[in-house]
Amino acid sequence: MERVTNETSIKAELTLRGGENGIATGIGFFDHMLNSFCVHGGFRLDLVCEGDLRVDCHHTVEDVGILLGTALREIVDADSSIARFAHDYVPMDESLAFAAVDISNRPCLVFDADFKAERIGELDTQATREFFAALAHNMRAALHLRVMYGTNDHHKTEALFKAAARAISAGLRMDGGETLSAKGVL
To answer: Residue 29 and residue 175: Cα distance in Å, rounded?
Structure first.
């Protein structure tokens, strides 16, 4: 997939089969989080993004979320016989994060996480929420994320990315049955 705007230029390939990832956004900590997302979700991602980082990281982070959400949505559109609902808890040292997802065609993000630091590396901590908002809305899923507790912002953020990846991966699991909806469609 590609996404080109006046603020970013992104090329990406996402598969549901794990493997070695190649991720380059120009934001080291964000690359680390995307790699963790893929490893723990069982995804393989090749992604190169050139963004207007001289402004800040917001456009890059949000546009990557848009593109990944769109890619995941295409997977759902190809076969809607998915598990749909899933959740997971992930501990990261002293931190614990929770994620729940309903891949339902009704986008929503509930985000409950507080960070003490303004930045982790080159990533603005408030951009974490923007990534997940873009992901959830473009995936058209209800995504609930919460840091249960923790003191280290790196650990809290990484636990969120891992928990979200595990829940999304489980929700995308093909169950081979009918679409899980009383309406008959997602």
So the answer is: 35
d(CA 172, CA 69): 13
In a domain, 51, yes or no: yes
For residue 160, is pLDDT > 70?
Answer: yes
| Residue 74 and residue 8 in contact, taking contact as beta carbons nearer than 8 Å | no
Instruction: Measure the CA–CA gap between 30 and 149, rounded to whole angstroms.
Output: 21
d(CA 131, CA 82): 24
> What's the number of domains the chain is made of?
1
DSSP state of 7: S
- Structural domain including 25 reads 2-172
Per the DSSP assignment, residues forming a β-bridge with 3 are 10
How far is Cα 183 from Cα 186, in angstroms, rounded to an integer?
8
Q: What is the pTM of this model?
A: 0.93
With respect to residue 34, please indicate whether it lies within any of the assigned structural domains: yes
The tens digit of pLDDT for each residue in 45-99 reads 999 999 999 999 999 999 999 999 999 999 888 776 788 899 999 999 999 999 9
- Is 177 part of any domain? no
CA distances from 28 to 49, 77, 155 (A): 12, 32, 15
CATH number of the CATH domain containing 81: 3.30.230.40
